[in-house]
Amino acid sequence: MKKDFVSIKDLSKKEVKELFLLTEKLKQARPKHEKPLQNKTIALVFEKPSLRTRVTFETGIYELGGSPIYLSPQDIGLGKRESISDIARNLSLWVSGIVARVFAHQSVVELAEYASIPVINALSNLEHPCQALADLFTVYEKFKAFKGLKFAYIGDGNNVCRSLMLLAETCGLEMWVATPPGYEPDKKSQVTNHKSQVLNDPREAIKDADVIYTDVWASMGEETEKEKRLKIFKDFQVNKELLKYAKPECLIMHCLPAHRGEEITSEVLDSKNSIVLQQAENRLHTQKALLTILLSSP
Fold first, then answer.
1. Which of 76, 118, 168, 282 supports an S-S bond with 175, CB 3.0-4.6 Å?
2. Catalytic choice (156, 161, 215, 229)
């Protein structure tokens, strides 16, 4: 792999397969696996608060033998108290790697550019690559292959959607996306596979789907748009009525946190078809595999 994991585009199909195989191995062996991060410290640079991202990275680093240092916005002030380039150079003197959860994608790009140590994108406004890895590993766990599956994403064409589209193309997974007009993912993220499409009709997108995925309609930083988006996205709620168009056994996914009663109903989120908790668990395992690959060398 490259030194850094900033985007799904940093991974080849072969590297994704190797990462998934290592994820399986680490998950099965937990907690009695090797400690490749022994005596290594990882800085967690967080501009945005998080439950899953912080806990899974901190736990994963501990379980791999390393030590995490959490740096809040007040601790570091990316580009405010100090330039990103200076922060990257200084952290490179003290720690073995950087995990960055930022507002602007350019921030993690700059960290990777100026740091001599690996930088992992734990979320930016453009992508959420660690989430996508956990999600498609969860699909792989359930079906053991991607060929012949239909994966439908319903909602906002946000950072999660973009990373999922890029990874689906890499893995050969057929992905259909349905968003309201004007909320489609940008063209650079859209897949070139002719079997995958971006639509504005959720019913068409989930027809005969094996997996249905949704996310919040207003991401962190878009709170002022919430009322407007509630009206625009109302026909994109994943509910029992919409699921009539999918396969009866289709799996339900959501990266969490969920706004129950908005993008998804509690009835669907808590149903027997829901695998949201498996997704959440697999954040830990895929990130441990990623940390092992990027940081286990001397």
1. 168
2. 215
